[in-house]
TrEMBL record, chain A:
It comes from the Bacteria. GO terms for biological process: cytochrome complex assembly. The chain crosses the membrane at residues 27-47, 59-87, 94-116, 136-152, 164-184, 204-225. The lineage of its organism: Bacteria, Pseudomonadati, Pseudomonadota, Gammaproteobacteria, Lysobacterales. It is found in: Cell inner membrane; Membrane. Belongs to the CcmC/CycZ/HelC family. The gene is ccmC. PANTHER family: CYTOCHROME B_B6 PROTEIN-RELATED, HEME EXPORTER PROTEIN C. Residues 37-187 form the Cytochrome c assembly protein domain. This is Heme exporter protein C. It holds the Pfam family Cytochrom_C_asm. It is a multi-pass membrane protein.
Automatic annotation (TrEMBL), chain B:
Belongs to the CcmD/CycX/HelD family. InterPro entries: Haem_export_protD_CcmD (IPR007078), Heme_exporter_D (IPR052075). One of its GO terms (biological process) is cytochrome c biosynthetic process. Pfam families: CcmD. Required for the export of heme to the periplasm for the biogenesis of c-type cytochromes. It comes from the Bacteria. The chain crosses the membrane at residues 12-31. Its main location: membrane. This is Heme exporter protein D. It is a single-pass membrane protein. One of its GO terms (cellular component) is plasma membrane. It is found in: Cell inner membrane.
Amino acid sequence: MNALTLWFHKTGSPPTAYRLAGRIMPWCYGLGLVLGLVALYGGLVLAPRDYQQGDAYRIIFIHVPCAWMSLFAYFFMAANAFIALVWRIKLSEVLAMAAAPIGAAFTFITLVTGSIWGKPMWGTWWTWDARLTSELVLLFLYLGVIGLHAAIEDRRQAARAAGFLALIGIVNIPIVHFSVNWWNTLHQGSTVRLMGPSKIDASMIWPLLLMALATHVWFFGSVLARTRIGLLELDGGKDWVRAIALDDDKEAHA
Amino acid sequence: MNDFLAMGGYGAYVWSAYAVFFVVLALEALAPRATRRRVLADLRGRLKRRDARNEASA
């Protein structure tokens, strides 16, 4: 085995991955929290009022980053599910399933904050347009993946079945993303663009982008926390997990 | 300060949206802790039963 393959095997082995994840995880949570608080200060205090929407537009600073996360988490889950199905890498199975509940949480926040924003701006909590409906379908896909994974006893078979469902559901991702261009809708078009100028002032865009960074970092912290649990479940009978289980008991009774 | 909380008349909407954001993410961060405790307790139970079985057959 060459050095790279060896490194890959070692890092991918459950006990090493568990330890490594445990070391990186608190930094992700901490950095996400600090960046998020700075972004909130920028969005709620420093950014000026919008000339059209007044202060109601400030919901954008959580709504849009969470909406991006709902797509990013799905992409992360589907990519890992693909690797898990093709190369049968255990760590990828665990990573894919770790992303599902976090993606569901971000999708839920997106739907609820969007609804709260829609009431004063559109005059309705909900409309069955393409953007809102496809985002709701995204939530159901996440819940389906979580449910299927929980319903099968064998952890590896469960991850494989749920990963398959995650891969089928990826057709929904471009629909969510392009829905505001493809169909006429109440939902406003993209504000921030990768190509071409964004339709938002610099004083408003930096808190938005910083919050997007914060939610990404937070996402990885949470993925690592959940991956550690997945690894414990996967390797339940092994010595290294046994040692952790007994240690945990001592701590609990100390 | 009152102006800040009022959010130009949209206070109820803005703050409830932010409350949802914080509550859901807090629950999302706490959930793995609870799961971890349950998984480890399950494992200890299984280990105990296995040891008891081994002793009985020895």
